[in-house]
# Entry
Amino acid sequence: MARTKQTAKKTACGYAKRVSKAKDAVVRKQKAPSRRVFLAGKQTSGTSSHLQGGWPSNKFCYLCHDGGSILLCCNHCPRIVCQRCLGLSNIDDATICNTDVTFICPGCHEIQTRYRKHEKMPYFGLLKMTGTTVQPIFPQGIQVSGICERASNSQVCAEPVIVLHFVCSGISPLGSPADLLRVILEEYHVEGTLHCEQITFDFGTDKKSADWHATANQLADSLISAPFTRKIIFISTHSDVERGDLFGGQNDDGTDVAMEVTCFMTTLFAGKLRSVVCDSTIFLLTCGPVVRIAESFIAMKDAVKLLKPEYVVAFNANYFLSTVLKSFIVAYASRVLVEGQHFLNVLQSLLDRSLDLPMHTDTFVFHMSGLRSPKAPFLIGSSTQQEAVQPALVGYRYTWYHSHRRPWGTSLPMGCPECHSIRPWGPSTRPKSKVKDRISRCTKIGCSASTTSKPPSTSYQLCPTDDKSGWICSKIFMEAM
# Structure
């Protein structure tokens, strides 16, 4: 049978009776949670709506991102579609609740015809099994009135998410990317499916380290029992300029104390908290020495192998400003956590949407593959039996390039070293001797200053955004686990 549900509306438009006095106002009460209808032979009521693939259905229509009184749950994917977007003014509940009726969303219909290489077919949506044949409930087809403003495979996820922000003592957390992420996700989560917590850490002495170990275990005990499927962790701390060590707090006399990266990570995620960090996404909000200095970079790899987060995102700016990450976090929340897109597949798009991040820093991504059991987010066009991915640790570096400002990702000096003009560089050109090098020359008349930019020494792929700029994606290492 077709599955339906109800979700409170989020948009600020609707219909209401006009009144002239406040006392005459009509208060529209929220309806009680509606029944859910499942596949034939399945449970027909309750509060859980898991599909045959094991995924919970979404809570908002994937076309309009809104709720409604009647939401139809697709039998092939987690998505739901509201009655308004389907263009169905009247739906007979008795027909929908029939055990032989199933529903396929417009997105799955599109994917189905694409994978099977059919010609464009009319969309019927609601189908009924009659004997051995499948008949549409609406033989003339359904004229979908909603507009899909996103990718065909996007959805509106409401998977249980936990956001943890670990802040080193002495750092102000006000206006952090973690707070911004919480504000964005709150609109899509109900029923306690979003948990955000900020934790200040200081393990600069042996006693403080022991106290922190107890705190970490208490925090883990409060989180492990909850069924969070997404774990997003932010770490705000400083890094040592000479060694790339990460600050762990202060000693007894108030002096800052730094620790080797692996030691820092294992101390921060001590005891039971280590199980929480596994399969998570970590944003390391600290300055660049942690990835620019070879010793700390290797230590970071060792920490990832030990703790096994799915992703660690770090930056190499000399003086990293977390405020430049905010537009990236907005895009990340929308594309990855809400629409359900794979992080690596949309990473360049997220970087393109970032306003200040490209000029400020390169982006490093440590990816531990093979942690999650492989499963397709949509059943149509995908094999339910997929081969397990061999665990491996892969490192990527994304560098922004621009013909005028950052040829081959190398920032040009703001002032000309000879004439001292500000931003005098013209479009870079290729010398005849070395095809891949780029030469930038000062455009001031009479000045002969020039600078040469060279391509990366490691393997890379150019991902252009336009004819002048884009991204250099370098795979800097790959190690089997």
